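Exercise 7b. Backbone tokens:
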């Protein structure tokens, strides 16, 4: 341990401060240091500052959630090839582990890059410890906190004082000292066990707070423990020769069974359910505006992927998931008399081999927990008790996998832009001009690749934690993780990154051949309320632009279509100067085009007119449908329908929508057509929806939680269970159309045993937001399908359908039409579809051909489906969590079959290998980028 003593000495000299106690003194006294950095920070800020400085020097940050990196003053591990000894690292310290032997045991093998990591050895079982920084350069915030607490322990002086050397100990003193030492060890062990093993203790240790109030996690975890013991006993009775360690502890001889099952529920073992909840993480994807040199918004956004701790962000989700765990246990222990088998799918589902414990009243949100022997046994017994009915698998999301451009957005835009401009650059006749333009473009493109790659790697840090089972997550985050995992396989090294880039470029060729634009620019311009063009395809000749927009109309007519007018692409007239103001990306790329055309003798000035067709870019691993547009708030959604604001909307958007849907149509005499949809009807129905949402505030008055008397009046005092029952009855009576959603609504108000929940502020906010989503779709479903005695839609039904159609168009539509450009990387196919056509067909269909389209509100989604087909358009209500607040968003989703119905291009290009197309211009271009990328990386490393 000499190297560690030297480290402490150098640390003392560096800070010019004598520590109160050394780690060796503590461990020599038989004690386990249990420092608390946060307490030290309050009691001794100067000491905490010293620890912060050391952490920054060693690990690059003093914040557990900060970006960690390998710093200085970290000693090398004495025994880096023996993990069983903790690599020889003393307890409570860190060391740099540089492995010299391959995992296969071949000492002569060449080690892969990145086999160096920073290891922390805590107090206790060596095998439970993990790196602070792993071999991929990713930091672990939980281990970071443990190391920081170990540093804090040195300042706290927890060890007993040494006996004065010049006063010999008497035998009685020696015996008393030994007894005190044994007692201290016992107290330390008992305290540690009491903390970890107490229901809620593991959660508290990791998250820093207790959840023991009304409806808290502690009571639910305490129930887990009781159920777990009964499950173990049940296993031993049914399997007297069974050897499953979780239930037998490896020894059936011990009287009264074993405590092994509890380690699968509480404590800090890797399989502990409570630990999974304590480390639960999700992911937040948000957009940050890109600013210009003067700090003004450019109109562009950067997608930022940020891991979030669900325990800090959505405790209500976790409480509901904890109840679902208890439901599974109760189903397992209920024998044949268990009566709630029909509710299983509202509590527990499977995703592959993992368990999904659903939140209250949710079908998509919950905790994803990796399978373990205890949960597997519980599921097996539950299935037996429910007549052999298996736990439902969570299907692949209807619009899953998530769009890859959420994570690799710039690469998608760059691939398309570069493919087009590369051909133009190669046609420049003057070699000097060609080299200069190419270098300028490559410099820019390589920089965007590096920038995007950095963001992607940051997102992968979170994904790898999920893969290692270190964290559990919610179902939506799980989908994102699965997509990231697949995407990383395609881009984990330079060759695969090049292949990914080339694949996107090849898939764009059919589009370029069909449209032949003069320029392509990344703009990110909003034209609808929830839609923005990613790129625009520009033309310098209006006649050429006019010819291009006929593609959709011509394709429709050629196939015998009769309603083809709305299928034209549409274009807008702008100028070079206006395009230059769309953001830094457009400005940079435009400068390259200007150089190319200048070499041909064509000067582009700010006043040069450009005729543009908007394009939405979407890339998928396996295409199954796409999102046409979205927004993040009910108020904005209502405002945009009313034309009173509600986000950025193109000034022509409302008129285009009203015309496209045929609102306020007139007959030949100039009078309104009787029974036709009107914009006044759209607004009147929005009044009805808003009134329902507002009425919720009478049931849920305020944001501080509610308690009501039997008459429904709010009374002061603590939150009560009777309040939940009264509120539920008010909802059922006031919103009769919720009858079809009864199970979902009850799940919001009752726990897994059917007990009414307390109306705490958190439950209040959660239920209120969830009810907003259920109310809207249930109202659409009931009203939109009303018919009179002759079987015709009523005026109320027409208004409901017109409102839904208008909302869909405003959230997902785009002025001028534009097109959606979809890449399926798995099949190597390209699909190009009019952006408006999949919106126009169903929304006009429910108004003018109602017998051909189903109009159904299911759960939180309104779905419009062409009867007898898989062609569907959905208005899906979504939920976003921000600390203890919940937002109701909306998204317009288009199925693959519907998109294919209106496709202009649907072509299989074929999968692309790394070696494909070596003689092609694109291959040479990419190789040039690859070399430049390597050069830039070397410069970054050197500097």
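Sequence design result:
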């Amino acid at each position: 341990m000499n190297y560690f003593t030297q480290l402490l000495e150098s640390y003392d000299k560096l800070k010019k401060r004598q520590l109160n106690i050394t780690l060796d003194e503590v461990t020599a006294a038989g004690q386990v240091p249990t420092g608390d950095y946060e307490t030290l920070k309050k009691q001794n800020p100067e000491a905490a500052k010293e620890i912060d400085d050391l952490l920054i020097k060693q690990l690059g940050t003093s914040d557990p959630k900060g970006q960690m990196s390998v710093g200085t003053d970290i000693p090398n591990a004495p025994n880096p090839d023996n993990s069983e000894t903790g690599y020889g690292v003393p307890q409570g310290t860190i060391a740099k582990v540089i492995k010299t032997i391959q995992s296969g045991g071949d000492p002569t093998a060449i080690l892969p890059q990145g086999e160096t990591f920073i290891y922390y050895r805590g107090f206790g079982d060596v095998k439970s410890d993990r790196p602070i920084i792993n071999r991929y350069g990713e930091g672990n915030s939980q281990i970071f906190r443990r190391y920081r607490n170990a540093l804090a322990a040195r300042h706290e002086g927890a060890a007993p004082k040494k006996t004065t050397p010049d006063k010999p100990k008497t035998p009685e003193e020696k015996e008393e000292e030994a007894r005190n030492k044994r007692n201290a060890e016992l107290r330390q062990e008992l305290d540690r066990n009491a903390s970890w093993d107490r229901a809620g203790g593991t959660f508290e240790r990791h998250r820093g707070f207790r959840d023991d109030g009304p409806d808290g996690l502690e009571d639910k975890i305490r129930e887990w423990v009781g159920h777990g013991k009964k499950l173990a006993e049940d296993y031993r009775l049914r399997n007297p020769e069974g050897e499953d360690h979780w239930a037998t502890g490896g020894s059936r001889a011990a009287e009264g069974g074993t405590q092994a099952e509890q380690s699968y529920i509480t404590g800090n073992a890797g399989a502990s359910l409570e630990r999974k909840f304590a480390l639960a993480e999700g992911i937040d994807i948000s957009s940050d505006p890109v600013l210009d040199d003067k700090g003004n918004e450019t109109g562009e956004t950067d997608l930022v992927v940020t891991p979030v701790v669900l325990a800090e962000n959505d405790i209500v989700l976790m409480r509901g998931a904890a109840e679902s765990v208890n439901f599974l246990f109760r189903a397992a222990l209920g024998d044949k008399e268990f009566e709630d088998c029909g509710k299983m799918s509202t509590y527990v589902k499977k995703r592959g081999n993992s368990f999904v414990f659903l939140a209250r009243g949710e079908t998509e949100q919950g905790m994803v927990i990796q399978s373990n022997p205890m949960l597997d046994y519980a599921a097996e017994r539950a299935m037996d008790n429910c007549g052999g009915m298996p736990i439902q698998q969570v299907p692949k999301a209807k619009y899953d996998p998530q769009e890859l451009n959420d994570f690799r957005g710039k690469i998608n835009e760059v691939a398309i832009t570069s493919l087009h401009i590369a051909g133009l650059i190669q046609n420049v006749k003057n070699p000097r001009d060609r080299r200069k333009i190419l270098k300028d473009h490559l410099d820019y493109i390589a920089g965007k690749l590096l920038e995007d790659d950095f963001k992607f790697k940051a997102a992968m840090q979170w994904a790898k934690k999920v893969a290692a089972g270190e964290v559990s997550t919610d179902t939506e985050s799980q989908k994102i993780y699965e997509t990231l995992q697949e995407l990383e396989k395609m881009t984990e090294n330079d060759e695969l990154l090049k292949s990914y880039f080339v694949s996107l470029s090849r898939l764009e060729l059919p589009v370029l051949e069909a449209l032949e634009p003069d320029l392509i620019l990344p703009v990110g311009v909003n034209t609808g309320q929830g839609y923005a063009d990613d790129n625009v395809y520009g033309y310098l000749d209006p006649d050429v632009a006019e010819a291009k927009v006929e593609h959709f109309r011509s394709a429709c007519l050629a196939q015998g279509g009769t309603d083809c007018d709305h299928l034209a692409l549409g274009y807008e007239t702008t100028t070079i100067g206006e395009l230059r103001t769309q953001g830094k990306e457009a400005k940079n790329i435009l400068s390259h085009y200007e150089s190319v055309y200048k070499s041909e003798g064509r000067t582009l000035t700010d006043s040069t007119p450009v005729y543009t067709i908007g394009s939405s870019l979407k890339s998928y691993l396996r295409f199954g449908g796409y999102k046409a547009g979205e927004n993040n708030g009910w108020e904005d959604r209502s405002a945009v329908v009313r034309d009173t604001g509600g986000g950025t909307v193109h000034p022509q958007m409302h008129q285009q929508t009203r015309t496209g849907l045929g609102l306020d149509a007139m007959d030949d005499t100039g009078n309104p057509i009787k029974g036709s949809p009107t914009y006044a009807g759209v607004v009147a129905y929005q009044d009805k929806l808003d009134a329902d949402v507002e009425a919720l505030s009478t049931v849920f008055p305020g944001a501080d939680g509610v308690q009501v008397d039997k008459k429904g009046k709010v009374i002061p005092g603590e939150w009560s269970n009777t309040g939940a029952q009264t509120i539920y009855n008010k909802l059922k009576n006031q919103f009769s159309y919720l009858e079809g959603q009864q199970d979902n609504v009850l799940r919001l108000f009752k726990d897994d045993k059917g007990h009414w929940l307390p109306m705490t502020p958190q439950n209040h906010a959660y239920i209120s937001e969830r009810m907003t989503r259920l109310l809207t779709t249930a109202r659409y479903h009931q009203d939109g399908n009303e018919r009179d005695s002759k079987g015709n839609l009523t005026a109320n039904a027409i208004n409901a359908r017109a409102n839904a159609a208008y909302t869909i168009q405003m959230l997902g539509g785009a002025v001028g039409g534009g097109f959606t450009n979809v890449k399926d990387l798995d099949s190597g196919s390209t699909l190009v579809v009019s952006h408006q056509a999949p919106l126009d067909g169903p929304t006009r269909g429910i108004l003018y051909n109602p017998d051909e389209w189903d109009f159904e509100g299911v759960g939180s989604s309104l779905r419009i489906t062409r009867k007898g087909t898989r062609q569907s358009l959905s208005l899906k209500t979504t939920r976003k969590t921000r600390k203890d607040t919940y937002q109701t968003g909306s998204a317009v989703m288009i199925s693959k079959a519907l998109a294919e119905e209106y496709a202009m291009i649907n072509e299989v290009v074929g999968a692309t290998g790394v070696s494909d197309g070596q003689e092609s211009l694109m291959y040479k271009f990419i190789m040039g980028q690859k070399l430049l990328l390597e050069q830039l990386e070397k410069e970054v490393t050197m500097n």
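Instructor comment: The chain has a mean pLDDT of 77. The chain is about 45% helix and 15% strand.
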